[in-house]
Write a structure and sequence with these properties.
Blueprint: H1 2-22, E1 28-38, E2 47-55, E3 58-64, E4 72-77, E5 82-85, E6 87-92, E7 103-105, E8 119-121, H2 126-141, E9 144-149, H3 154-165, E10 173-176, E11 180-182, E12 192-194, H4 198-212, E13 216-220, H5 237-249, E14 253-257, H6 261-269, E15 274-275, H7 286-295, E16 299-300, H8 304-314, H9 322-327, H10 330-345, H11 348-369, E17 374-375, H12 384-395, H13 400-406, H14 409-415, E18 432-435, E19 449-454, E20 457-458
Parallel strand pairs: 1-4, 1-5, 6-9, 9-10, 11-12, 13-14, 14-15, 16-17
Antiparallel strand pairs: 1-2, 2-3, 5-18, 7-8, 18-19, 19-20
């Protein structure tokens, strides 16, 4: 009797194991966005009636809703809506420490003329941090989930980067350079680590890599003998190559400020990993477009930084748009209209940049058409500028569907993060944008935001410290 009972229990146990082995695994997603039209960022056509699962900070599944796994979790109804990756701006200079809003540069240290200039902290350094947080909020409110700061006061930007990564602030993902690196007298050397002699100055570079831990090292190669600027010294190419090689040996990508076809080509063949600006000094040759298509060196667009001068002078009504109203304070808008506008109207630089911006737009279109990688970037410190950047590409003849990829996956490629960011695919970080209109039909539809999700969490807009004041939370569910 005892033996038969033992046998019965063994048989039941074996049967249970067999059932467990063939049973489908149980899922428990945090969020499921279902019945949505998916624009995944890779360039493939929009896919209707899709479901996307999110667990923790990752995308777990992307599948037609009809065959989606039956899982628990908060369900977001995507009927009539469009899901795409979060936008990226791969060239900003976050406000707060530059331009007198909290900290200011006070010149070169006479004891270390080759080093970065010392910084003088304002009476209340909290002003700098608050200004930076407002700018970061403007990016999230505009649907931007990743930014790359291409040069800033290290204490300011690296401190905010640390807070963002610790989850202490509401912010897009922050990638940063800190101090840039260049030759004495070259573009941006007032905020740069200056390298003049490789044997002598290499230890300074190594200390910079170890202490600031830049996500990307930015160099400059620009003579400024164009437009209305004076000639300056150039970073020697052999020195540039040494710096690039050393950064890459530490697993760090590099980018270069250039503005001409010649300097961009030189930087590419010195080994640069990306280019921080378009060619704006003149039209590119078809051969350069083909070179960019062959080399696949990502190039940031940064069209709005030049176009912004004449836009304010001639079309100040753009400041009435909702994204700008949220991102600027009333005092900032008044200053732009009443002080900045008349000052820029009198500057030769404003009208030279108006003349050259269409040239840069066409250069970007040609590179994209040749198979090159261009990525949305503004060289500014405000979220709505990303949408203007996309409008300028559309005006140049780039299709809205291509611009979606340029604003998402190409940004990730620029940063070397395409395995983690930039498209809606299983395993990638859940940085998502839910819209109520088709972004592949009109770039302005990317302003029609229903929900921003960063790292698997919907953003509560009512908690964003926007300069324009509190905004209500957008509702993702109906």
């Amino acid at each position: 009797m005892i033996r038969s009972d033992i046998m019965r229990r063994l048989l039941v146990g074996v049967a249970g194991l067999a059932i467990a082995a063939f049973a489908p695994p149980a899922f428990a997603e945090d969020y499921v966005i279902e019945n949505v039209t998916l624009v995944d960022g890779t360039g493939q056509p929009a896919q209707p009636n899709m479901s996307v699962g999110v667990e923790g900070d990752r995308i777990t599944f992307v599948t037609p809703t009809a065959v989606a796994p039956r899982v628990s979790g908060t369900r977001i109804d995507g009927r009539g809506r469009f899901l795409m990756p979060g936008l990226m701006d791969v060239h900003i200079h976050l406000k707060g420490a530059r331009g007198g809003d909290g900290r200011r540069m006070v010149g070169t240290d006479p004891k270390n003329p080759a080093g970065p200039p010392p910084m003088q902290v304002a009476a209340d350094a909290r002003i700098a941090r608050a200004a930076g947080l407002e700018a970061l909020a403007s990016y999230l409110y505009s649907g931007v989930t990743t930014v790359y700061d291409a040069g800033n006061v290290p204490e300011h930007i690296l401190g905010l980067r640390a807070e963002e990564r610790a989850g202490k602030i509401l912010s897009p993902r922050i990638f940063a350079t800190g101090n840039i690196v260049t030759y004495p007298g070259s573009h941006g050397d007032s905020m740069a680590l200056r390298i003049e002699d490789w044997a002598r100055d290499k230890p300074k570079l190594l200390e910079y890599l170890a202490t600031q831990k830049p996500d990307v090292v930015k160099l400059t190669l620009d003579e400024h003998g164009w437009g209305t600027r004076p000639l300056i010294s150039l970073l020697p190419l052999d020195l540039m190559q040494d710096i690039i090689l050393e950064a890459n040996r530490h697993g760090i990508r590099t980018t270069a400020h250039t503005s001409s076809e010649l300097r961009a080509t030189e930087a590419i063949f010195a080994g640069i990993d990306s280019l921080a600006h378009p060619v704006i000094q003149g039209p590119i040759t078809p051969e350069f477009a083909k070179l960019m298509g062959a080399k696949k060196t990502p190039m940031a667009t940064t069209l709005t930084i030049g176009e912004g001068y004449s836009r304010l002078v001639e079309q100040p009504q753009y400041l009435d748009q909702p994204l700008y109203q949220a991102s600027y304070s009333a005092a900032e808008i008044a200053t732009l209209r009443n002080e900045t506008l008349p000052a820029w109207k009198e500057r030769g630089w404003t009208w030279w940049m108006k003349l050259m911006t269409p040239v840069a737009q066409e250069n970007m279109r040609m590179i994209d058409a040749a198979g090159g990688i261009i990525a949305i970037a503004t060289d500014q410190t405000l979220g709505p500028a990303v949408h203007r950047e996309m409008e300028l590409l559309a005006a140049a003849g780039v299709s809205p569907a291509r611009i979606v990829t340029i604003a998402t996956l190409n940004g990730a490629r620029h940063l070397g993060m395409e395995d983690r960011l930039g498209s809606v695919e299983p395993g990638k970080l859940a940085d998502l944008l839910l819209l109520d209109a088709d972004p592949t039909a009109d770039v302005n539809n990317m302003k029609r935001i229903v929900m921003v999700m960063k790292g698997g969490q919907p953003v509560d807009e009512s908690k964003l410290p926007l300069a324009g004041g509190q905004r209500p939370r957008r509702m993702a569910a109906r």
